Amino acid sequence: MGRGSRRRFRSPAPKLTNKDRLALYGKVLKEARPIWKWIVVSCLLCCVIIVCATVGPKLTGALTDEIYAYWQAGNRGIALVEPMIPTLLTLLGVYTLGAIMRWLNMYLMNNVVSHHYTCAIRIRMSDKVRRLPVKFVDGTPVGQILENMTDDVSAMGNSVHQVVNTMMQGILQMIFISVAMLLEDWRLGLIVLATTPASVLLSVWLSGKGRKYHHQNFAEAANLYSVVEESYTNFATTKAYNLEGDLVGKHAAVNGRQKEAQEKALFLSGLAQPIITLVSGLTFIAVNLVGGFLAVKGLVPVGTVVTIVLFARQFSSPLEQIAAGVAQMQRTSAAAYRVFNFLGMEEEDPRSGEVDPKNVKGDVEFRHVAFSYDPQTPLIGDLSFSAKQGQTIAIVGPTGAGKTTLVNLLMGFYDIDGGEITVDGVPLSQMDRDAARELFAMVLQETWLFRGTVAENVAYGKPNATREEIIRACDQAYCDHFIRTLPKGYDTIIGDESTTLSGGQKQLLTIARAILSDRRLLILDEATSNVDTRTEILIQKAMNHLMEGRTCFVIAHRLSTIVHADRILVIRDGDIVEMGAHKELLKKNGFYAQLYASQYDKEEA
Length: 605
Fold this sequence. Notes:
By secondary structure, the protein is of the alpha/beta class. The chain contains 21 helices and 12 strands. It has a 6-stranded mixed beta sheet with strand order 6-9-10-3-11-12, with helices on both faces. A 4-stranded antiparallel beta sheet has the order 2-1-4-5, with no helix packed on it. Strands 7-8 form a two-stranded antiparallel ribbon. Strand 9, helix 19 and strand 10 (about 550-555) form a beta-alpha-beta unit. Helix 2 (about 35-70) packs parallel to helix 6, helix 4 packs antiparallel against helix 6 (about 140-185) and helix 6 (about 140-185) packs antiparallel against helix 12. The two termini are about 30 Å apart.
């Protein structure tokens, strides 16, 4: 139906300032408002985890001092262990509580927060697609939309987990541990803290370097979705022309570009954690050496050294969490940019104005209509014609002349650039879009059947139809007989890719769908182009019954199907070059006569 080209999606990395990225992160967190209670619970669990992580080393240090004191006092065996049992049990309880809280928090974030968050955004995006104009669908690869709704949204969901469960917990844990170390012994604490700024800055710098590669990775993932979708929908054509090798080459090229971008992004992001681990290891060694020296000199208790050593070991964990969080935020900024760009796209103007489909007669008029898909390429300059109630208007012309464009304009899929289209004297621009589209029933060249029963497919335009109404419509469309031969009759499951139905049978079902919907205006876009002569005769009989009292627009290449039309519009380059009945146009011996002669010899004409 559309004219948009589906080029491979290659968007450059967006030039985002730090202010832009902060605004994106703010929007990401703003999307989490519906689940704020669960986030608060997660934050409370994080606080418990941090307290346990801080108390554990402190108790271990105290326990070490107890052991040392009891040993120095000459206690051995049970006499040594028994006084420490309360501390040991407390320590066991603290670490057990911390482990349980970590598990609960991980479960909460992964199975409640992230899932609810991503689900809500995907529902919004799905609803957004419904409100976008047809020109967006015509010009946007399916892979791009799929990638936006899957990988991009998942990256945003992971960011909520990273911000709340990782970065927040990591930062708070660093603060708690820093204060605890300085209170325990400021000299050893400063050794640990001295390396922190360098580690954090290095992580941020490396993650920033990988930002553009994350965007490229997502863009190539969209290309991959498109290639897979094209190869699947055109599987038979690919087989017929032995193009499997070319298809594999396409896949390999896209996979190669994605692999290269992914490798660079992961390499730069992944450098932060091992560097932090190296710095933490060196810090751990320094603390042990200096702490051991101070303990030997009697300047600090042994338990204090043990506590600081455990804190130093724990200190690397929040640093790694922050590094991972920063890397995730870079992926999030790339993903969020595309998701919010999608959600912010200009929607189809809903239009206002009521129209009752039951009271519409069906008088249609084009008044000096101008339209073009591309402002640089004019298509329709000044188009005027009218159709009265019950008339059949046939539209013929060469490929690309603008025939299907008239249908797009009638249905309101595209807004006209100038002029006016009216139904019963009321401009379409003053009608609610949904109500205006309820005036039309359509039978298109490309049949569309969803996966479901025959009855459900026929009742697509009238969901509340009874079984009797469905059967009556199928009988009028001359498809009742073959439906009853199917394994389960009207309850047989079919689908758009079904191999159990021929092209003609599918077309008959879509015609039955149009009959059942019982609209005042009917559009037939190459409705008989995919059927054999016998089926075409059946369709014509059904159409003759359906067209009675209805205004009908028929687009046809097979001119034999429109010889009895009340008026034939001959379109070329977006303009009406001839208009009249079949015999009138033949007598003019103009462009229509040439089209007709190209299909039939002069004697038949």
